[in-house]
Amino acid sequence: MLLEQWDGERIEILPVEKEPGIDAISFSFINILREFGDSIEEVVMDSTWKTNALGHELYAMVGEANGQAIPISFMFMGNSDDSAETGGKERKLRHLVR
Asked: Does the reported pTM lie above 0.85?
């Protein structure tokens, strides 16, 4: 609900492909991309993989522009049940990158 409150103004909620057994939400910062998007030279992805007991993960895409790390987008993901297919998380992350 908090993200929906700022959608289109400060953030953009990014579409996430459906995957059985995996829930996710993804967003990017509109103003950061407008200001630094053309000068980003390199992009990396990092995660909080296996850092909590519930199995939720936060993935961050970070760009480098003018010697600074610039947050580009985030995806919060977790298993909703045991029906997740092999490679489902990877497919979601590839969609985020695209």
From this structure: no
